[in-house]
Amino acid sequence: MGWHVALSEAAAVDLGNAVAFLARNSPTAAERIGLELVEVIFSLDQLPNRGAPVRSRPGLRKVAHRHYLVIYRVDEAAERVEIVRVWDARQDPQTLRLR
């Protein structure tokens, strides 16, 4: 059995916003990419440390999919992965708020 994967409120909003933005031009693409991102997110239950460390933020890791970065933290003791943000990497990184 894999680890528990949980989305922060900010990550859930990010994911919803990404899908809504894409749906304006292509509902089909929005659904496909949204499902792909969900698959990437929940696959972390099997390999939680596969993402690269975020150099500027110790304790955070990231995994890329298309133009998006799934930013997360791993709690080894609790066998839990918390998704912190789902970030469109085409945006200005100075506006990214991580906790």
Automatic annotation (TrEMBL):
PANTHER family: TOXIN PARE1-RELATED
Gene3D superfamilies tied to this protein: RelE-like
The protein's name in its UniProt record: Plasmid stabilization system protein
InterPro entries: RelE/ParE_toxin, RelE/ParE_toxin_dom_sf, TA_system_RelE-like_toxin
Keyword hit for Transmembrane: no
UniProt KW keywords: Toxin-antitoxin system
Keyword Repressor: no
The family this protein is said to belong to: Belongs to the RelE toxin family.
